[in-house]
Amino acid sequence: MDAQRLKDSFGQVARQGDAVALFFYADLFVRNPHLRDMFPVGMSAQRDRLLAALGRIVSHVDDLPALVPFLQQLGRDHRKFGIVAEHYPQVGASLLATLRYFLGEDWNDDLAEDWNSAYSLVAKVMNDAADDDSLVWPAWWNAQVIGIERRRFDITVLRAVPDRPLPYRPGQSVAVEAPGRLRQWRYYSMANAPRSDQTIDFHVRLIDGGPVSTVLARNVQVGDRLRLGAPVGSLTLDADSPRDVLLVAGSTGLAPLKAIMEEIGQRPVPPRVRLYFGARTADALYDLEDLRKRAAESPWLTVTAAVSDEDPGGAFEHGLLPDVVARAGNWSGHDAYLCGPPDMVEQTADRLLRLGVPGGRIRFETFGGDR
After folding, report:
1. Contact in structure between 333 and 271 (CB atoms under 8 Å)
2. 93, 38: one domain
3. Residue 307: phi, psi to the nearest 5?
4. Pairing of strands 273-279, 244-250
5. Which of 144, 202, 240, 326 could hold 351 in an S-S bridge, CB 3.0 to 4.6 Å?
6. What distance in Å separates the CA atoms of residue 33 and residue 193, rounded to the nearest whole number?
């Protein structure tokens, strides 16, 4: 298997953009009509995820230590769609048909062998991980909504309780399927450390046109049922680190960092934690009251709020979060955890690197706009 040949051929195909995913799914459903019901009616987000996953797999095809954990998580995560071993050859056949179509005269026997070998490895790793996971955990958890706080017209805090224990680490996320949105899953981070009563909080921001966020933020009622996928994500606390902690949250990117904050608070001697919480306007600081209450009760915690699009009149810091954090001091002795809009996270990470924080001590997660 020639890794560079795989990368070059995929780069050539990927230049065709959304047409690649359109062709792939059309071929898959023509060959296997029974698979269509496993997917949502609207496929735009699904097509984006397919191309993103393929791009990541191909870019790491010569770096198995990085690729295998991603594939294992992908295999476990696909259990909630009902994917089983017999589906992998069907998907593989449509993938090769798609590559052959878009490569045209550049497709040859060597490329076919390379892609067959690569896909066989991918399918084996994913299927083995799914099989192992099925021995321990369900494909999904059913959960009931037991609390709703609509903090703003576009931000809602939900509390749900799963039908069985859902083990996760603070900072992780689960895929959520909302009422009336069958097979449309979107990822939301747990906003609390695990509790003895098994309840989980989610912070939901309404995304314009988002099929799942619209239901969760505006329509869901107490008593409604959700489905939750298996926990995923690596934005988790380095429990062995003796260093102080910097948390930087933009909008509902607060959720996983609040869970990490709670985990830190459970330590016998918590490190000092500086939490920066930012939004465009003051009324979008939807959880500030609770954060300030926690800070007043926790001498190890300092909370700083910032707004960027209006003059806070001295009540908060003024400016973009990367600027506010950068001007606050030297963070080289801290572990940093960042979550929020991609631009904010990228710029904050860059500032921290320039301020002397090693890249290995900056953990981050971003959220997109298709929720």
Report:
1. no
2. yes
3. -125, 150
4. parallel
5. 326
6. 42
Within the chain, residue ranges assigned H as helices are 3-14, 18-31, 44-59, 64-77, 87-103, 109-134, 211-214, 254-265, 288-297, 321-326, 342-354
Assign residue 14 the CATH number of its domain.
1.10.490.10
Strands of the sheet containing 200-205, edge to edge, are 185-189, 173-177, 225-228, 141-152, 155-162, 200-205
Q: 3-state DSSP call for residue 103? A: helix
Nearest to 158 by CA among 80, 95, 221: 221
Domain with 344 in it: 244-366
Question: At 211, which helix (H) or strand (E)?
Answer: helix 211-214
pLDDT per residue as tens digits for the range 159-206: 999 999 999 999 999 999 998 887 788 899 999 999 999 999 999 999
Q: Give me the count of residues in the chain.
A: 371
- Looking at the fold, whether 98 and 161 belong to one and the same domain comes out as no
H/E stretch holding 44: helix 44-59
Q: Give the count of domains, the chain.
A: 3
